[in-house]
Fold this protein.
Amino acid sequence: MYRETIKVLDCTIRDGGLINNHHFTDEFVRAVYKALSLAGIDYMEMGYRSSRQVAPPADYGAWKYCDDEKIREIIDGIESDVKLSIMVDAHRVIEQEFAPVDQSPIDMIRVATYVKDIDKAISLVDKCHDLGYETTVNVMAISAENEHDLIEALDQLAKTPTGTVYVVDSYGYFFSEQIEYIVKLYQDHLPGKRIGMHCHNNQQLAFANTIEGIRHDSNLVDGSLYGIGRGAGNCCLELLIGFLKNPKFCIEPILKVIQDYMIPMSKDLEWGYMIPYAVTGFMNQHPRSAIAMRKTDGKDKYLEFYSQILDLLD
Amino acid sequence: MYRETIKVLDCTIRDGGLINNHHFTDEFVRAVYKALSLAGIDYMEMGYRSSRQVAPPADYGAWKYCDDEKIREIIDGIESDVKLSIMVDAHRVIEQEFAPVDQSPIDMIRVATYVKDIDKAISLVDKCHDLGYETTVNVMAISAENEHDLIEALDQLAKTPTGTVYVVDSYGYFFSEQIEYIVKLYQDHLPGKRIGMHCHNNQQLAFANTIEGIRHDSNLVDGSLYGIGRGAGNCCLELLIGFLKNPKFCIEPILKVIQDYMIPMSKDLEWGYMIPYAVTGFMNQHPRSAIAMRKTDGKDKYLEFYSQILDLLD
C-alpha cells in the first residue's frame, strides 16, 4: 500500500509504559528514537504529560510526565526528522503546563478522552492549538459507547481546530466490518479532518484493523515495536512497515531495535495475545480484569475467568 | 457472524503435528477430540495418511499415518458429532490405502496439492470420492503461483466431484484485499463449490483473513487450538468461536483444553508470531528458512536473517 499521505506514529514508549509505570531507561528510549529516525517513522510518542499531583513521582518513571527538559536530553545529538508527541488524558488535566511550541521539543499533543469528557478534551485542544501544537483527539473505548453520544461528540470535534480524530479500539473488540463502518461514520461527521487508527490486539486484529482503516482513507496510524502495549498490546510497527510501500520507510533499524531491546524485554514484561485478553476482547470489555488475573497464580485459569466475566455481565 | 452454512474444522493435530513429527500422545488427541465434540466443532483433522515408504515410522508418530484402527482407539467411548478428516499430499501418494467410507472412522479426505500437481490431486479425489468420502482440495502456496496457472487448476477442479476447494495462504502473505480478490476468483471459476479458508499467522492476519473469507461466503474454515501449527501457526480456533454466533458452538471446552494442554505444550514446542515468520510472510516466501534459523543459536538475529532473505531473492 502506497499513499504519500499515510503517516505512522510509534507509541512504544507511551503505550508500553503502561506495563512498567513508565520506567523505561534513557538508553532504551534513545535507542528507539534513533531506530525510528533511521526508519523514517513520522512520529514518536514519548509518554504522558501527567499531573504530579495525580500521579506522584514516587510511583512512576520519567515518561509519565515527559518534561521538555527530559525529552531534550534523550534526543540530543541524534539527527532526526521524527516529530515528537505526548499524550494527555482530558479527564486528568490539573496543573500540567505546556510551553509554546517553539520553546518545546514536542510537536504534537494527543488528547485522550472518553465521549463523556469531550468538552474537557476540546478545552485542552484549544489551549494546545493556541500554543502552536498539532493536536489529535483520541476518542477511547468507542466500541462500548452508544452511537448517538459518539456522533454528538464527533459533531463537536468537527468545529474544533484539531487536525486528527482517532478511532481507538481500546477493548480490541472490532473486526473489519465494524472498522469500515466507524471510519465512514467519522468521515461523515468530521469533514476535512484526518482520521487516525489506534488498535489493540486482543483478537489478533490490531494490524488487520489498521490496514482496514488505511483502506478507508485513515492517514495517521499507530504501531509499536513488537506490538508492546498494555494487555494484548498494539499493532506491530514492523508489520506496518512491511506493508507500507512508501520508499521513505526502512525496516532494518526496526528489526535491529527489536532484536536488541524488545526480545530481552519480553522476558521481563508481559504483553501480547493471551486468552484472557481474547475473552475481554470478544466480550467487548475493558481489559482490566484480564490484566489483574494475569498477575495472580491463577493466570492460566481461563475457564474460571470466562465464567467470572459472564457473571459480571449478569 | 451467524450463517448456518459456516462449518469449522480444527487442524490442531494435523498442522500442529508438523512441529513435533506427529508425536502427540493418545491422551492429548483424545482430550482434543472430547473438547471439540463438546464445543460443537464440525470437523477434526487427525493428521496425514502418509506412505511408510516415504515417511519411515522410525521418524514419525502415529498421526503421520492415521491408520483407521488408531483413530478408532482414540475416539472409542466418546459421544460426538464431530466428523473426522485426514490430509494426503497429492505429490506423495505411493502405497497408501483407504477403506471404503462405511468401514472407516474417517469422513473426509483433504487433498493438499500444489498447482503443478493438480492432476495427481484430481486422481486422488476421484478415488476417494468413489470410496464414498467427502473430499476437499487444498491448493497450497497460491500467493506464489501465477494467476494463469492457478485459474487453469481451478477450472480443472470445477469438473471434479470434490465439494470444497481451499484458499491456502501457506506463506501468510495475503491481506484482506487480496483474500477478497482470491475468494471471488475461486467463486468465478468453481461454480457451486464450497470455498474453504486455511490461513497462516505470519503477519498476525490468520484470523482476520479467515473472517474476510467468511464475509465473502467461504463456508469451511480452519482453526487450531491457540493457533498451533508450523511456524507462525494458524487461525486461533478460540477466536473463531468467539466470533461465530451460531449457538451450537460452545467456547468453554475450548478454553479448558487450551489451559490444560496447550499452555503447558507451548513451553516445549514453539509456534506463533515471531519476527522471522513476519519477514518470510511479507516477503511472500516459504517459511522454511525461518523455521531453520529458529533452531540455531542465532534465532533472534533478525537483521541478519532479513539480509539473507534479500540475498536469496537476488
The mean pLDDT of chain A is 97. DSSP finds twelve helices and eight strands in chain A. Chain A has two domains: 7-266, 275-313.
